[in-house]
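Example (one chain per record):
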Amino acid sequence: MFAVSSPNLCFLLRSWIFSSTCGFSSPHLGFLLHIWIFIFTFGVSSQIWGVFFKFGFSLPTFGFSFPHLGFSSPHLEAKGFLCRVSKAFKNSLDLFSGRAGNGAAPELTSLNVSIPLPPGGDRVLVPKTARGAPSRGWWMAQRGLPRLLTDFPSLAVPQPPTITKQSIKDYIVDPRDNIFIECEAKGNPVPTFSWTRNGKFFNVAKDPKVSMRRRSGTLVIDFHSGGRPEDYEGEYQCFARNDFGTALSSKIHLQVSKSPLWPKEKVDVIEVDEGAPLSLQCNPPPGLPEPVIFWMSSSMEPIPQDKRVSQGHKGDLYFSNVLAQDALTDYSCNARFHFTHTIQQKNPYTLKVKTTRGITETTPSFMYPYGTSSSQMVLRGMDLLLECIASGVPAPDIMWYKKGGELPPGKTKMENFNKALRISNVSEEDSGEYSCLASNKMGSIRHTISVRVKAAPYWLDQPENLILAPGEDGRLVCRANGNPKPTIQWLVNGEPIECECGRDWAPSSKIPPKSHQNPTLARVYSFSKIPLIRVIENNRTRLDCPFFGSPIPTLRWFKNGQGNTLDGGNYKAHENGSLEMFMARKEDQGIYTCVATNILGKAEAQVRLEVKDPTRIVRGPEDQVVKRGKILQLPCRVKHDPTLRVLVTWLKDNAPLYLGTRMKKEEEGLTIFGVTERDQGDYTCVASTELDKDAAKAYLTVLGKALLTPHLIYPLPTERPDQPRDLELSDLAERSVRLTWIPGDDKNSPITDYVVQFEEDRMQPGVWHDHSRYPGSVNSALLSLSPYVNYQFRVIAVNDVGSSVPSLPSERYQTNGARPEINPTGVQGAGTQKNNMEITWTPLNATQAYGPNLRYIVRWRRRDPRGSWHNETVRSARHVVWNTPIYVPYEIKVQAENDFGRAPEPDTYIGYSGEDLPSSPRYLRIRQPNLEIINLEWDHPEHPNGIITGYTLRYQPCTSPVFSLVLQRGGGCSVAPPELSFWKAMANSNWANITWSHNFSAGTEFVVKYITSNKTEKSIPVKAQGPSSVQLADLTPGMMYKLWVFPMWSHPSEHSYITFTTSSAYTKNQVDIATQGWFIGLMCAIALLVLILLIVCFIKRSRGGKYPVRDNKDEHLNPEDKNVEDGSFDYSDEDNKPLPNSQTSLDGTIKQQESDDSLVDYGEGGEGQFNEDGSFIGQYTVKKDKEETEGNESSEATSPVNAIYSLA
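Predicted structure:
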């Protein structure tokens, strides 16, 4: 600012001003001009300018005008005076100039209405009660430079109260601190505050512990001098009032935090079997808010958790199965309370686990929730937590599903090792049935949870602040929803309105004057660049002009800034500010200005209109008839506005035309080379710009069925159709895609079908499969797709002659993955060897895998007796189970699985383990009714070891006819008698006698094979006649042997063996025999016999004289027996002697002498008994035994008891 000190300059300036054309006649204005010039002349500080603006002067050029002050006065209107002064004093008014620094339009709020500042250097006065204002008064706002002018109570804008800050609805406080219940509000005049508690007036002045902050409604409850915070619990509500209304806060529910002590209880030792499920209850005391639960040992170590051991959301600790190591620690539940920052601990649990040799695997069962179904309710907007905890060995895996769809995307989270499913911000669409599937290798179980979503009232259309000018009507809208349906009530200043208002309420149009003491200047939303409206000549158009003002301004339109108001004739001005033009003409081009005016001022905006020439097709296509194979041209010449870009497109039968290689679009038409019957149809040329379009249509007829000549009609030759071409994929979706193709030439034979094939590059790359078949009248098809397949398609055309060459492949399309929906079929179980079972099935193909890493879960178990399930995961289509019993039934399941999950539970199939050679028939009977007929009877084998398919009878004529019976079955054949009759082994510590009988022909060579328990194998060939025996030498004492005896030309069955064990040899480490019970008993028996003998001798001696014992014997003893002569007896062990009638071989074995026993000597009527490998196991008959007994009577050893009786 500069100062003028020359009085002459001041006088000249004053004279120039008064003599100017401003022409002010008001003495007040003259007086004020003197003051103005005086201030300017003496360089008074810029702060005095504030006094001037108190009178409301207008400085239009400076950017400050009467309307921005918010009032007007007819006594202070200046029409031109100050504009000239402003030019002369520009530098002295830099205080009010400036531009926006960042280009953004700042916002100021008055009466809850946002008023954007206009561009340029405009300024506006707003009350300091606007957003962010600290106190009463007025602001002067300009772009980048808001300034406080002064504190003018006369310009204060009335404003009803508005709550700006309040405590949360559910307010939990710490009992150790003072309580602060916040309530802040704004308004003009400054509002006063009051409170209600539990619906009744709360007198703050009567309670010495309660006070209210100055210039605020915040309550302070002080407990430093004592008192119980619990006495102040309840529901509080704040009221802010002034002369223009009442504002209410939300109802605040005040609660005092509680952390009660854990009740004392005696916790017993918990005994549980290893592998059994277990849950440890926590049951914490109820706190406010609820405490945080965690489990620790008494040594304050956290309990490790996994899918076997985990904590439920209610605090309980669950064991899916208990292991022995779980007893190494104790378990204590801890509760942490938030406000008091305290942790309380429950008495620890002690576990005692009863261990077993092995843990039995079990199928899953649910520990929480119970049963197969449950329900749960959740409020809209809250988090939904679903939980499933299962027991089982091994620990089950948990998977979650939603019936009828996928889990809600984007807001689903798995917690607690997949045992908990959390869905955030629940909405009504999330209701339905959710299921959790618990599975391990033993089986699976499912639990269904029905979720219902309720909703507290929530806004659909929230009421918005409404500003009305005098005489205006308004409407307040209040739309809410909830479950159950909420009721809507209207209140004015906290008092209910007795009316049936429903969702909408229209306030009365008779507004009290004091409610509208802050009118707003009319505002038109203008732009830095004039908007351009383009329209086609002779078309209807509309020019929009958005505006705002209070009182509601009037709007007028002008063209090129001059002339009369545009309304009537070709124009119509609407109430919303739009100007409608019924028919735009070339002369209507220009700039249109809209001016909004109310009692406080005016504002304007501009729109530019351009009128364009229409687009026309001056030469379009015409109907034509052409012969097949000809070249066709369809013209389409277009005229359009040169300033607009035109686009020409072609349609065939009202669908976009695919040009391909036979069609060419040119500047003035369409050319078709080699016309075919398929080209017949409607052709439309469409010329379009961004403003309009034009179209022309023609019909093409193709003659191609016969070749016409003036005299004859020759049929055209037919061939296979040409291949389709130009395959295109569209309408890409999750499980479908549309395939479109261009048909090839049908070669004079109509195309009857199209075959769509596909190829995938994962499981069978390069192999094409038929997908679907469509009639020859279509060239587009919607194809159904399977998940996780990288598709490539091709099309084959078919006519009566044959199929075309396949088209070129389309581009590839990859679908997303999913879990399998079907399981393998054709599941079979059969043995390939006698100790295995091969499980096979038909694998899923590429369109059934549905995801990566396809694999199969194979489960099997014995059907009878029913055993436990075994499982194995494989990727091939077979699995071999080894070490199975011979030919037993198994239950089999095969389930498909990929990285996205498992298929549904599979069906159960029955399979059988491998077959083996059957045992011989139980018996073979030969009956001879007469000399010409022989009847043979036999029974089924005791161990079929498979499916018996038949019996083969073999015989050979000889002096003694020999019959053999052969069993036929899948595993092989075995031959019935002749066979071994019986065989046994008598063993000592290092040798054993092996005896057997047979009815084979003379000179049959046998093999005696024996294997030790440590798999050492030896064989001895024996050439035997009749009953035979052999001695095995150099055996290991105390060793168990397996023994086979069989003809050299045959092979023994694996199971047709006997076992024997050699006795243990005496060693230095042997236990003292004198301490053995059996030895002591034997000695006692001998002593008793000796005592009896002495008593007998004593009695004999007492009867008479001495005489030889031989004199009293009826049986004469062998005179060669020297032992008899001296009265002694010789005891021998016949079991360890070689058999009679045998001789020792050169290799140390004993051979049985030839015997002429026949088969009749060993049975009656040909009856016999067979063992598993077909050998004869019947013993000698009574007749044979009797003969052997009679023949061996003389060799029987004399026992000591007989000797005693002889003495008697």
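Caption: DSSP finds ten helices and 88 strands in the chain.
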